[in-house]
């Protein structure tokens, strides 16, 4: 299982493996948001879609 994490509005989305996620983040804290869960390919597809949908600054 992989997670797409939004840590801050300033930083891009991160893709982390389940073990890395639990090593770096506490799911009970509200300091991040899980945008998507799935396989590695599903997570990369989700991030690619988000990049296309977001307006360029």
What is the structure about, briefly put?
This protein has helices at residues 18-24, 40-53, and strands spanning 2-6, 14-17, 33-38.
Rg, please? 12 Å
Q: H/E element string?
A: EEHEH
Helical content class: 25-40%
Instruction: Note the overall shape.
Output: flat
Structural class by sheet pairing and helices: alpha+beta
| Low-confidence parts | none
Query: What fraction strand?
Result: 25-35%
Strand count = 3
Strand order of the largest sheet: 2-1-3
Index terms:
alpha+beta, three-stranded antiparallel sheet, 26% strand
Describe this structure in words.
The protein is flat, with a radius of gyration of 12 Å. It has one domain. The mean pLDDT is 90. It contains 2 helices and 3 strands; from the N terminus they run ββαβα. The protein has helices at 18-24, 40-53; strands at residues 2-6, 14-17, 33-38.
Which SSEs are present, and which pair or pack?
Blueprint: E1 2-6, E2 14-17, H1 18-24, E3 33-38, H2 40-53
Antiparallel strand pairs: 1-2, 1-3
């Amino acid at each position: 299982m992989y997670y797409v994490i939004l840590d801050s509005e300033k930083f891009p989305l991160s893709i982390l493996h389940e073990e890395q996620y639990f090593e770096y983040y506490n799911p009970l804290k509200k300091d991040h948001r899980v945008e998507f869960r799935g396989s590695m390919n599903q997570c990369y597809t989700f991030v690619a879609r988000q990049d296309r949908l977001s307006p360029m600054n």
